[in-house]
Design goal:
The complex is a heterodimer.
Chain A (H helix, E strand, L loop, with lengths): L2 H5 L5 E4 L3 H13 L4 E4 L2 H7 L7 E4 L8 H10 L7 E5 L4 H7 L4 E4 L4 H14 L2
Parallel strand pairs in A: 1-2, 1-3, 3-4, 4-5
Helix pairs in contact in A: 3-4
Chain B lengths: L1 H8 L12 H15 L1 H11 L10 H20 L5 H21 L4 H8 L5 H7 L3 H55 L3 E5 L5 E4 L1 H7 L3 H5 L9 H15 L5 E9 L5 E12 L5 E10 L1 H82 L3 H12 L6 E7 L5 E8 L2 H13 L5 H4 L1 H7 L3 E3 L4 H6 L4 H10 L3 E9 L2 E10 L8 H64 L6 H32 L8 E4 H14 L4 E6 L5 E4 L1 H17 L5 E11 L2 E7 L7 H4 L18 H14 L3 E5 L7 E7 L2 H7 L3
Parallel strand pairs in B: 12-14
Antiparallel strand pairs in B: 1-2, 1-5, 3-4, 4-5, 6-7, 6-10, 8-9, 9-10, 11-13, 14-15, 15-17, 16-17
Helix pairs in contact in B: 1-8, 2-3, 2-4, 3-4, 4-5, 5-8, 12-13, 12-19, 13-19, 14-18, 19-20, 20-24, 21-22, 22-24
Classes of the chains: A alpha/beta, B alpha+beta.
Chain lengths: 129, 774
């Protein structure tokens, strides 16, 4: 029984990152755990995707082309309806600061271990609104 | 003829005869007068008959005849009683004489008659002619009668007058004698009459009292008898002269000896009294006892002498004192002068010390202010603020910017409203104004400039636009110092201190102070610069490390993640899926390559920063290089088509590895920023024989306009929120490589989307031939 199933979560996990390697890795890991995963390579693409899906958790990179994490968070929060918790995934030195800047629900500093990713996603996916 | 009678009447008697002889005397008087006046009388007669000029007589004869006639007329006139017959005869004789004279001149009696009687008519003349002689005789007689009466009348008057005069004289004499007596006997002054031998005749009581002799005793004495023996000779001399008539009076002061032997001083005045005949008769002497006066005079004289002596002594004393005082004054003046000099020196020294103190305090404050900030511009602004108003009415700090331009960094003015003008002035400086601003020359020479007074002529000489003139007119610089900011032998800029409003002038001490200030400011500025550079270097290093870490973390995460994933696969109870393991290993390989590339890029950046990126040029076929890079990039993507358009071999003298790095980077970006895939065009052109261009075009997301300016900048300049991370490293390195080749790189963002990066390179073939490369 996958974590996703046991959580009874409705929405997919949204991964927003400009690095193809990260997208592939996170998608692989979370898919293995039974989560549905959608990916976008920048904020604007993610917002487009959100027209169709309502994620349970958003894993958000901050520095991206076209639309960065700050702008995405601002626009996402302005949208009506329930909001998924946002986990900032960043290689920045001041990861906590960045998370605080957009009032993120969690932070996952790079590099991270596989179990760290899973634990965090499990936590929010289970407690998600 | 009336005049003759008048003259007679005015005669006065000379002799003083007795009353009985009166008539005789008068007769003689009249006769004498007539005689005295005979010549005048003759002249009158002659004038009366002048017009008949006696041609038949000589002048002498006429005169003689007239004299005789006149004498006869006078005798007749004076006869008692008057002999009228004789007078008539004389008149006739005169008439005859007249007549003869007239006849001799051929004149008629008629004419003569006319001349004798004025204004007669012809008829009257005719009637007179026969009786003319008789008439003339009558006329003469009438005349004499009249003259006689007049004379008698005058005689009476004279007699009355003489009598009155005599009466008056008698009265006067009587009054005079009375007065004399009163004076003589009543006087307090001693008076004596002496005869001409000096013997006393009369002495008044005052004299008796003065001399102590009685009247009788005195009458037996000569005045020399009581004269002090020593004064006798002096007393006799003038008396002798008096007697001899050489003088009428004299005065003398001499000593007398009283009867009791006492010596007196007397003031004697002696006058001569003559008798009626003018013969010396008496001498009258008036003696005044002046003993007391003399004694007083003596006393006064003695007192005077004493006084004079004392005055002389006192004068001498005073002179001495005065001299002392003078020398004292001189001494005091010298002392005062010395004191003043000392005071002035002391004051100058104190002023100097105060000024020095102020300067020290100022410099101390300056140092403290200057070192309080390690910010370069803050430091220089504080210099300007420090200088005003203590050192200047306005201060401008100019610095040389990195590009060599002169930048007015700081400005201060006592009137803050004018600070803007000072800033504006900088912008307006025409080259001619260098002499006025001093900034450029001082920057050039590194030596201070000191204008005690800025001549109007200098301002005027810098003509130019009206705005510039207006600024000068408002700022009115009067005196200026421009000092260089020199640190470590480098001129960083200048400080200009200007006196304007306050009308002060700079002196050498100000220059020293300004140079000192400038020295400190320069050191502080240099320190601030060094600090800023060090800070920047540190920040850059920090940022570099941060970015390096950031860039490395993502692939490292992926390598770790895929490795863990693989391990889990291999450990899985369900057994591993070889396809999944393979995919993971491929990902690890890809991410490791990415890591390797990143590390290379970071090393490249270090080399660039250190100036150690060196090209290894060789003549290269650019077309082939691009084709190989495109092929290599194509391997890594399945979604993109890379289309190369290039002419036949285009040769260039380049570093092939570095150029390949550039092309690979551009292709990598093209792929990355067009994630949806699509065509990527790469075009090589050699439009110009010396230039080759490589253009890479994608149809991806492009770059937001606000970021376009900065895509070639160093990565660490990217702001925290900058979203073009990842582009920075490659594009920055590419630009450095292209520029090392002498070319340039630019970006275009076509309207239909995507980006187009163009690299232009000089082929460098001429250089290759020169270097002998092939």
């Amino acid at each position: 029984v996958s974590a996703a199933e046991s959580a009874g979560s409705t929405g997919p996990i949204l991964v927003v990152d400009d690095d193809e390697g990260i997208r592939e890795f996170v998608q692989t890991v979370l898919s293995d755990e039974g989560y549905e995963v959608r990916t976008a390579w920048h904020g604007a693409a993610a917002l487009e995707l959100l027209e169709q899906v309502s994620p349970s958790v958003i894993l958000l990179d901050m520095r991206m082309p076209v639309m960065d994490g700050w702008e995405f968070a601002r626009q996402y929060r302005e949208r009506p309806g329930p909001h998924a918790p946002i986990i900032v995934v960043t290689a920045a030195r001041d990861a906590d600061d960045r998370a605080a800047q957009i009032a993120a629900d969690g932070v996952l500093p790079k590099p991270f271990r596989l179990h760290q990713l899973l634990e965090l996603v499990d936590q929010f996916a289970h407690n998600g609104d | 003829m009336r005049a003759v009678a008048g003259a007679t009447a005015r005669a006065t008697g000379r002799e003083a005869p007795g009353a009985s002889d009166m008539m005789t005397t008068e007769r003689a008087q009249v006769l004498q007068i007539l005689r005295d006046h005979r010549d005048a009388l003759v002249e009158n007669w002659r004038r009366a008959i002048a017009h008949t000029a006696f041609v038949s007589f000589s002048a002498q004869e006429v005169s003689q005849h007239l004299v005789e006639l006149t004498d006869q007329a006078i005798d007749a006139l004076l006869a008692e009683p008057v002999d009228r017959a004789k007078a008539r005869g004389i008149g006739a004789a005169l008439a005859r004489l007249h007549y003869v004279s007239a006849e001799a001149l051929g004149r008629t009696q008629e004419v003569l008659a006319r001349e004798l009687v004025a204004g007669p008519t012809d008829a009257q003349v005719a009637a007179l002619q026969p009786r003319l002689a008789a008439l003339l005789g009558e006329a003469a007689a009438g005349f004499f009668d009249q003259a006689r009466l007049t004379i008698l009348d005058e005689q009476e008057k004279i007699r009355g007058a003489l009598f009155a005069e005599r009466q008056q004289a008698m009265e006067a004499l009587r009054a005079s004698e009375a007065r004399f007596r009163a004076i003589f006997y009543g006087s307090a002054v001693g008076i004596a009459l002496s005869n001409m031998s000096g013997q006393m005749v009369e002495a008044n009581s005052a004299l008796q009292s003065i001399m102590g002799y009685t009247q009788e005793e005195l009458r037996r004495m000569v005045f020399t008898d009581w004269t002090h023996p020593e004064d006798v000779a002096a007393g006799w001399q003038p008396f002798q002269e008096l007697i001899e008539g050489k003088r009428d009076h004299y005065e003398i002061e001499q000593r007398y000896i009283r009867r009791d032997g006492e010596v007196l001083w007397g003031h004697l005045t002696v006058s001569l009294i003559r008798d009626a005949d003018g013969q010396p008769q008496f001498a009258i002497g008036m003696a005044e006892n002046i003993t007391e006066r003399k004694r007083a005079q003596e006393t006064i004289k003695r007192l005077n002498e004493d006084l004079e002596l004392r005055v002389a002594e006192r004068t001498a004393q005073l002179a001495a004192t005065n001299e002392e005082l003078q020398s004292e004054i001189v001494r005091r003046e010298q002392v005062e002068a010395e004191r003043t000099q000392l005071l002035a020196r002391e004051r100058a020294a104190r002023n100097e010390a105060e000024l020095a103190q102020q300067r020290l305090a100022f410099l101390a404050e300056a140092s403290s202010v200057l070192t309080s900030s390690l910010d370069y511009s803050t430091t220089l602004v504080s210099v300007a603020d420090l200088a005003v108003p203590a050192l200047a009415d306005w201060c401008a700090v100019d610095v040389v910017a990195e590009d060599g331009a002169i930048q007015r960094l700081a400005v201060a003015h006592v009137d803050p409203a004018k600070a803007g003008l000072v800033r504006e002035l900088h912008g307006y400086y025409p080259p001619d104004a260098d002499a006025l601003s001093g900034v450029r020359p001082v920057l050039h020479t590194g030596r201070s400039e000191f204008l005690h007074a800025i001549p109007d002529a200098l301002s005027a000489a810098v003509a130019g636009d009206a705005d510039y003139q207006r600024l000068l007119a408002e700022l009115r610089p009067r005196s200026r110092i421009t000092v260089p900011l020199i640190a470590r032998e480098r001129t960083l800029g200048t400080i200009s201190l200007v006196f304007a409003e306050s009308d002060r002038r700079y002196g050498p001490a100000d220059l020293t102070l300004a140079e000192d200030l400038a020295g400190r400011a320069a050191v502080a500025t240099d320190n601030a610069r060094l600090y800023a550079e060090a800070q920047q270097a540190l920040a850059e290093r920090d940022e570099f490390l941060s970015v390096a870490a950031h860039e490395l973390k993502t692939p490292v995460t992926n390598v770790i993640g895929f490795t863990e994933l693989t391990t889990r696969q291999l450990d899985s109870a369900a057994g591993s899926d070889p396809r999944r393991v393979r995919r993971a290993l491929e990902a690890i390989d890809r991410e490791s390559t990415k890591l390797s590339t990143l590390v290379s890029q970071l090393l490249d950046i270090s080399r660039i920063e250190a100036g150690q990126l060196v090209l290894d040029r060789t003549v290269t076929d650019v077309t082939r290089l691009v084709e190989e890079a495109a092929a290599s990039a194509g391997v890594r993507t399945s979604q993109h088509t890379i289309d190369v358009r290039a002419p036949a071999p285009v040769r260039a003298f380049v570093d092939p590895l570095r150029l390949e790095q550039v092309v690979a980077n551009l292709l990598s970006n093209a792929v990355k920023y067009s994630p949806a895939g699509g065509p990527i065009d790469i075009e090589v052109t050699a439009a110009h024989p010396d230039t080759v261009t490589i253009a890479v075009r994608d149809r991806g997301v492009g770059v937001a306009p606000e970021h376009r300016q900065r895509i070639f900048e160093r990565f660490y300049r990217i702001q925290p929120r900058d979203s073009i991370a990842g582009m920075g490293l490659g594009l920055y390195i590419s630009r450095q490589i292209v520029e090392l080749h002498g070319g340039h790189i630019e970006a275009e963002f076509p309207a239909d989307g995507g980006s187009r990066f163009i690299v232009s390179l000089p082929t460098g073939l001429a250089r290759a031939e020169r270097d002998g490369a092939t």
